[in-house]
Every structure is written in structure tokens, then in C-alpha cells.
Amino acid sequence: MRFVFLTTQDNYTLALRNAAAALSRQYKLDLTVGVYMTSELSDPALRQRLEEDLKRADFIIGGMIFGEAIVRPLEKMLAQVSCPVCIIISNPTLIRHTRLGKFSLGKISDGSDKEGHKGILQSLRPKHGHGEVSRQMNLIKGLTKILKYLPGRFRDLHTYVSMHQFWVHNTPKNMERMFCMLIERYIPGYKGKLPVEDPDIYPDLAIWHPDAPKPFTDLKSYQKWRKSRRVKLDKGVVGLISLRVIILGDNIAHLTALVRALEQRGVEARVVYTAGLDGRPAIDAFFSHPLPGNEGKVEPLVDLVATTSGYALVGGMAQSKADEARAALEALNVPFLQNIPLVFQNVDSWLADDRGLSPMHIAMNVALAELDSATEPLVYGGPSQDSGVAVPVQVQVERFAERAARRIALRRKANAEKKVAVVLFNYPPNLGSIGTAAYLDVFESAYRLLTELHAAGYRVDLPASGEDLRRMLVEGKGDPTTAPLLHGTDAAVGAFLPLEEYRRLFPDYTDIEPFWGAAPGELLNDGKRFQIMGRRLGNVFVGVQPAFGYERDPMRMLMAKDAAPHHGFAAFYTWIDRVFAADAVVHMGTHGALEFMPGKQAGLGPKCWPARLLAGLPNIYYYCVNNPSEGTIARRRGAATLVSYLVPPVQQAGLYKGLRAIKDSIDQYRQRPDAGLLEDIQTQAEKLGLSLQESYTDNPDGFIATLSHELLQVEQRLIPIGLHVLGRAPSTQELVDILSLIATFQRPTPGAPTLPEAVAAGLGYRYADLSTGLSRDPVLQDRYRQVENLGRAAVQRLLDAGPQAADTFLQTEARVAPGTLSATWQQLGDLRSKLEQDHETPGLLNALAGGYIPPSSGNDVVRNPSVVPTGRNLHGLDPYRIPSSAAQVSGTKVVHDLLTRLTHEQGSMPETVALILWGSDNIKTEGEGVAQALALIGARVVIDELGKVADVALIPLEELGRPRIDVVATVSGIFRDLMAMQAQLIDRAIRLAAEANEPEERNFIRKHVLAQSKELGVSIEEAAMRVFSNAPGTYGANVNNMVESGAWEDDAQIGDLFMTRKGFALDQRGEWQAARPVLEQALGTVQATFQNVDGVEVGISDVDHYYEYLGGVTKSVEKLRGTRPTVMLADVEAFSGPGSGRVRSLEQMVRLESRAKLLNPKWFEGMLAHGYEGAHEIEIRVSNTYGWSATSNAVEGWVYQGVAETYLLDAAMRERLAALNPHAAAGIARRLLEANDRGFWDADEQTLEHLREIYADLEDRLEGVSS
């Protein structure tokens, strides 16, 4: 007889095999068992074997089966079999295939059951609530006893209910009894020949230890047993949460190894198993006890909690109840770590997989647990390839034990004894870039952190100020022997690590030598010693992280995926960990290089560089709240606990200088039209580089309206002002700015009016009409400004005097009825409190004290106010909910606007669009970029029975109403890592379209795939690859490094570099393979390139990644086709200019950002208020603007002229810059001269000569500093 078992978990394999073998011996049975892990069924050969096995099976059993990729094929297979089937705790579609004799869940579901089973089953439906699993299992236990004595027609129902108990009490003995029951009842010829017994029942909640005689159901008896062992465990307690099925299945070698490794370090390993997928009972019973008289407060009985099942604390497979988990963990206030047992892979396949964990593993065992704020996801064991039995990965087990012990030390050590390393970054590496981070005043923030540490009892030699700290690190102030220019380094040298000591302390140096030569290599050493950049201040070391090492030679990274950090980088972390002996490291700002070092994408292994470099160091990362994607990489690859920081306040850009003057002229003309004034306005517009779409002579009204609209877009554009400082709350005026914008774009409750909608309605306008009519009607522009100004004034009164004052003001000025905006005032008041109170400093201190940092989504505060308070641990999204329904609606609208505009400009609909997808904007928009890709293809997502995104389906051409557009999706390495499931959705949609029997003129995907298959001589499956990224474990196109360094002689090199780095395609198996020829063929049909803008604070000139990606793919298409494609962007809806669509050309965006930020006194004075770092931020924007010239030739000459006049030709400004940061000032001059030399700017000779003199003078000053 043949039994086939299907499951996601390997907890049953050993018990089933042992039970079958025992029964075969005892009763002389010809019993064979086939156990299939659903994770393995992506292999076509194994799936075929399963299909054949199911057809010849005598009984089929399945449990814990989820995931559309396996559910749909299994559904078809089960429909073909005739033997008894029992599917439990799985997707409802599969459960309905259960049929045992006269009992059929399919018949019960469709109403055709005549046996009376339905009423009994309804009592088993789960209810919500803490302890529900226990209630339900007790009900099943009672039903099992009752059903034994009911008439025969209920025997099959008894079997079904009993199977649940056998499944969850899965000891080898119980598996024997299960086999006996099923054989006796359902295999012909065995009735009455085998004993039928109930399963042994085990406690729902107990402490387990591999040396204990039995599990303990109370803490007192466990502690008595532990004391009798006489094993010294005085270094803390780790609470490990497991599942009963794991313990009872006796497949526990990996869990036993965790216990042993912790005990070897003197740490008690308190393993608690739970019956269900809710870990809170373990916390309540064995990890804490309530404090009398303090409602909700508990005293922790453990120093750290770690899950060993890989699931979220509450919810289990494919789901998470994060709010409930957070409440329990926040009350406990100890770190929560994530240990992952392999389920969808075996140990050997995981070690060999460049990706690390499979997409299903990442979704189920990493992403969902991150919503609970689980940190340090670590693979510690899994099934062996040979036996399928669980084995530990000992290196990983030891790594967890060491990191847990170091975390516990943070809780137990006195602050005065702790050592902390505070690490700053330096990108691009030079003396003008030290202490840089996204929108953070790093030196002032670091100084404030040092001050807080000192106040908390840490031994810190405090500098006098943030500026004093900067001078220590940048100039070597206070100790001339550390000066960077003395050593040829980018920052002061605070310590040395002798070469021999490096080799002894970091034996992995031998794995670096194939890439960087024999130690010490060329970087950061004098031949005998490594130079550790930084300064020791008592028990705190403020260090400067070395750069990757290839920034000045980007062609070096054209190598394959194999790479390594340089010796100097490894020496830096080795010195911090082993010589300075830091108890923790605090990385200061977004972002550094450690987490992007080579290795697996997620589920790092023994040889992955981030894990090897960090070793046992607890990693606390002060991270920008608007960057959840790269923050998630830091969590998964850098074992980081994030503490988020707020972005600087955003304001409307306003108008200035010539823009203000032309606005005044327009207002004057509108009051008294005059031909001479109109001509003067035309002259002013030409001088300012404003677009002139209408003729001032042929259509003066249209000319004025268009010009007014362009000015309004600049005026209303949201821009961040200055940099954030740790512990500094926004001023009242900054709060007015922030809260006014939130009230403009957020509704306090669904259906409630926004602030401007309410004001417009009171004035008798429709706000939607104002917004849509702005481009053509100056009257509407005036009304729009009126509404905006009144709303802002109302928020000012709210903050000054409260809700009643705001209501009274709006009633008087705009006839808005009191109470209309009550919910808005309540929301803004709550946000004000969260913004004014410092949560970031307490978050950092709590992390350093070994506490729990609660989770938070990441976004900008205007788009998602729930990101405040900051000071929390950033996470991504539930991958099973992306793209959301809202993202699909918005994405479809953007695609409609994009295709409408491209069709208008190009004369026909484009056949192919190259799409750039990043992780960050897709997290913030819940997958809008993914939805755009599907909309272009003409596909929609399929939602399964559990409400999860499960698959894609093509929209019929008749419904679509246009051809399917071919999509070439280049995704960032971060998108590849965080959104593997979404990448597969896009890939599947492309393949469905390629296989669709549709006319080629209506399906450009099929048209191109067929042609490229023939051209390349490859299969349709290979030619259909359209999702491209880096090789697994590597990141970036490196176009930015090439442009920054000037290491390119002709444009073709930029495109060539991009295609080399991004020439890896997602195949049908969900794996990445080298496929540059396919990429070139796909890009060869591209007529437009497109990307979404990330957020309010991250425009196309703010970071170099925009031109690295969108510019890189644009240059690649130009190289292949000989002409530059149209380049378009989708502006963020919350700050797109009033009255405009979201889709803009690259040239429009460059003009808008240059006027709103780079040339705007409001913006650059906000930056210069932060001194050295602010000057560096200005240089970054100039360099990034130049990047758009290098990759897309999209910057007009007036932009460079404006930069020159604003920052260098103005003597006073030039001196300010040079005094604050001479390297930044010289960098701006160098970039302007290079723009002219490469033909991007045709400057007049007088301007050029002046710039050359300025640059020479700045270089002389730098040389003077050097001397």
C-alpha cells in the first residue's frame, strides 16, 4: 500500500518514516511512504514524479500547504485521483478536496452533502482572539471522543477530526496509530486487523530541553530541574520560541545545537514550544510576569527572545498580526531575533544558492517577521540533502549564540563599562565628504549622541561641539599626529592595527587576497600597519568607515559576482571588534557600505562578507525614515536594528530673484494689459529659460496662462529645508509647513474633506476644478493660491490657540462651518505631539541598553504620517499584499497618461518601454511601479481565497482597448532582494503575453519575443526574459561612479557598463542568469524610458541613483539604436506641481528641480546653515545635475550658468563655501569646467576664464592646507 504525504514542513518526515518502518516490521505490511515538500515542487521533474505518485496512491494526506504556485497545480492533480484524500490546515481550495468514505468537504461546500456533517463542522470554525488555537484544539479533542460513539455514517467525520489531532501531536508513536486507523478503515482487506487507538495528547505549552526527561508545564518545576543539573548558566537567559510539532516530530538536531551553543557561553536557553502559531502564551507564561498594580506592565524573565520556527510571533505561515505582536514585545522590552530553519530549501541547496533564501522563504520567514521588528534573520539549520532530516549549520549556530551573548551583555553591563563605536561614512571618499548621510547633520547629531551617552553614565571625553568633532576627524585637531594629510588618508587616523595582528584576528583575510592582493594591500596602510580612521574619546570611538575601494576605479567592478572588501575595510571592523572591544556599533545615517558587501541577498551564509565583517557586534543603525528599502537591506544583510530619524521639514519653494520679478510683471499685466509690458515679459522669460509654448503675439492670454502655471509649479513645489539633527524638534513655523501639507494630502477619515477641499467649498469653489484648470486659467491660479493661503493660516491658528480658533478663522474668512474639520484638527494635534517629542534619542539609548525597538513603516511624513514618531525600527511591507488595490488604480492611471503623452509626442503608441523599478518607491506606494508594469503589459493580479496576491492574468484585448506594450524592467538589486515575488509576477505576465494567441500588431510582446527568439537562436522561454538586474548578491549599475570619476572617454562606455552590470535576467525558475544578449535585443526596441520619482525629499538631483539607473538605461538604448529615447518620469502625486499630470519629461523635471532647489536661496541657505555638510550637499546636487548631462544630455545651459553665478562668480558666496568646505567649492568649479569641456554647456570665454582662475585658487588653498 502507498501513502503520499504533502507538506511545507519537514517536521513530519522522520516520524513518518520511523512509524512506517515499525509497522511494516510488526504487522508484516507492505507499506511505503512518499513524503513531498511543497518547496521542492518547482522542479518540473519532481512535480511529474508527484503527479504519477498521486495516481497510484492508496491514501493522500496533506497539511500546511499554501502558495499559489503549488496550490493550483495540486488542485488539478487531486481532481484526477480516486483514493481517499485528507487535506488539513491548508489553502481552502485544497481542503475542499478532502474525501473520506461518505465524508466529502467538496459536497459540504457546494451544499450537496446529505449526511449531516455541516452542523458539526461549523462548531470548529476559528474565532479571533488570544488562545483561540487552544480553544479549538480542546473542542476537537472533545469531538473526537463523542464521534467514536455516533452512528457509522459519522465514522469518516471522526477520521477527519482525528487527523487534526494526529497532525499536531506528531510523535512517531502517534504516526503509527494514525497509519493503523487509516489502513484499518480505508485499505480493503484490513478491517479489524489493526488496532485503532486515539493519539497521545501533549501539553499545548511547555518548556523543553534536550536533556530533560519530559517537557515542563510550569516554570517552577523547570527551574527545579535546571538547578539539579549543576550547570553554571549565569550569563543571561535567551527565550527560544518553538512549535510543538517540531519538538514532537523529534527532528530537532538543529534546535539542540542552539541550546548547546548558548550553554557553552554560560547562557540559559529556555526553549518553549506552543501548540499554535501564536508565541504570546510563551511570553506570558515563561518569559515574564506581570507587575502588580501596573496594568499591562511586565517584568522580563529573559534577556532576549528569539523565534526558532521562522514565523512571525503571531500569525504563522503567510500572515502576521503585527500590532498584537508589537504590544507583547514592547511590554517585554528585550531584543527579538529571528532564527530561520530551512523549509523550502535543504542546507546544501541554500549554501549553493547565490540568492540565499528562496523568494517564498523570504516572504514567509523574513518579511512577515520584520513587521514584528524581528531582527538579525539567521539560518541555523534545515533538512540535509541526503536524508531530509534536520541538521544544524554549526557556523551559523555559533554565530547566533555569540551575537545573543553580546546582546545580553548590553543589558547587564554598567554603562560606565560599555564601549561603543560610532561609525560615520565618507562618500564619495574625500576630505570634503566625511560625515555625510541622507538629510542628516552628522557631526552635530553625533555630538548630541555623545552628550546623551555621557549623561547616561558612559565614559565619554566630550568634544566642545559638533564643529569641534568635525575638526578632530577632518583636520586632526587636538592631535597633529592623526592629521589625515600626514597619512594620505581621507580622515584623521585614530589607531593602528599591525599587519600580523590583523592576520591573527581575522583569518578570513586569505579570502580577500585573490581580489586585493596579499595583505595589507594598497589601501589604508603604511606597509606594516593598517590606519584606522577616527578618534577615541574615552570609551567611545568615533570612526570613519572606509570606502568600498573601487569608487575611483569603477571599471574594477565589471568583474563577476565574486568580490570582497579590501583589507583596510576588514581591518577597520576587526579593530573595532577585537582590539577596541566595542560592545556595540552605531552606524550614523543613511547609508554605509557594510550591508552592500558581497554575499547572499538574504539568509546570509558562513562565507557572506557582511556577516564575517560584523562578527558578533550588535549593530544599531540611525537611519532615515524615508528609505525603508535600503533600511531593510541593512536589517537583512547587516544584522541591523534601525532607529529611524525624521527628514528635515519641507516647505513650498516659493519664487525668488528673476522668478519673483516676472511674476510681478505678469500680475501688473493682468491688471493693465500693455503690449510693451508683454514684450518685456517675453524677454524676461527667455533670459530665465522658462518654456514658451504659446506665442505672446498670437495668443497673449495663453502665453500668460502657461507662463503663470510654470511659475506656480515652482512656487508650490515642496522642498526639504536644511538637515535633520538628532533630538531637535521642528520649530513652530516648520510645524505649520509640515501640518499644512499633511492636511492638504491626507484625509483624517475616509470620505472626509481635506483642508483645501473644505476651504474651497466654503468659498464656493470645487478644489478639483481649481487643480485641473490651473494650466490655462490665471483666475483659477489666483483662487488656488487663496485656498492654500487660508488653509495655512488656519493651521497657524490651530497651533497658536487651538481648534476653536482655527474654526472661527475659517468661518469668518471662508464660510466653513465649525466642526467640518474637527477630525483634521484632532489628527494634526496628535501629529504635532509626535513631532515635538524626541523619540530618537531614547530609541538609540534603549537599543544600546539591550531593549526592543518597536517597528515602523518607512515613508515621507506628508505621504504617510504614521511614520512618526520616529526612533523606531523600519520595515517593508507584507509581500502578499503588493501591489495593493490602490496602487493598481493609481498605476493604471499613470500608464494611461504616459501612453497618451508618448503617442501624442511620437505620433504612434510606443511598442516597448524600459521601466526602472526600485524597492523604495514601491514600498512607499504599496507597489505602484509593479502595477504600472502590469498595466503596460495588459495584465492584472489574481487574489486568492485568503485575500493575498497570488498570480497574474491577462486582460482581454477587447477590454484593454489598445495593444500590449513590451516592458523591459530593470530592477535595482534592492528590489530584486525585497520584492522577488513581485519580480516573478511581472515575469509571468510577460510570458503569458508572449504565449497568447493574439495578432502581433495588438501584442508587441509576442511580436518582439518571436523575432528575438529567431535572431538569437534561443527558445521562446529565454527570449521572453524581460526582468533584469545585477548578479545575485551585487548591487548598483556603477554608472554614477564612472561619471563621478570622469573615467569615460565616449558615451558608449556608460551604456556598456550599465548593460554589463544589469545583464542578469530572471528565468522561469525564479533564478537569475547571465543574459546580456537578451537584454541588448530587448532594449533594441525601446522607444521610451520611464521611472517613478521616489519621494518629496528624494528628487532626481538629490541622489545619483536616478541618473545611474534611468540615465544608464537611456544611454544603453541610445548606444543600441543610435538615437536617444524619450525619457519620462512619474512625479510623486503628493508634491507634483498644482494642476499638472504626474507624468513629466526628464527635461521638465531637471528644470523644475534646478529652480526649486539648486538655484533657490531658500534651499541653499537652509543647507549652508549646516556648514561643512551643507556645502557638501550643494556640491552633490551640482554633480547629480551634471550626471543627467552625461547620461541623457538633459540639462540646459542656463542651469550651469545659474550655478556658476550663484555659487562661484558671486565673490561673497564663493568665500562662504570655501571657508565652510573648500573641497566642495573646488568640486563645484571642477564640475562646471568639465561640463563645458564635454560640450554640455557652451559658456562664454570670459566666464570660463574666471572659473579657471577660481578653480586654480581653490586648488592652491587646498594645497596650502596640505602643506
From TrEMBL:
Q: Name one GO biological process term.
A: photosynthesis
Could you list this entry's UniProt keywords, alphabetically sorted: ATP-binding, Chlorophyll biosynthesis, Ligase, Nucleotide-binding, Photosynthesis
Q: Where is the Magnesium chelatase subunit H N-terminal domain?
A: 2-161
Query: Under which EC number(s) is this enzyme classified?
Result: 6.6.1.1
Q: Which reaction does it catalyse?
A: protoporphyrin IX + Mg(2+) + ATP + H2O = Mg-protoporphyrin IX + ADP + phosphate + 3 H(+)
Q: Name its pathway.
A: Porphyrin-containing compound metabolism
Q: Where is the CobN/magnesium chelatase domain?
A: 164-1248
> What GO molecular-function term can you cite, just one?
ATP binding
Which InterPro entries does UniProt cross-reference here?
BchH, CobN/Mg_chltase, Mg_chelatase_H_N
Q: What family name appears in the similarity comment?
A: Belongs to the Mg-chelatase subunit H family.
- Which named protein is this? magnesium chelatase
Originating species: Oscillochloris trichoides DG-6
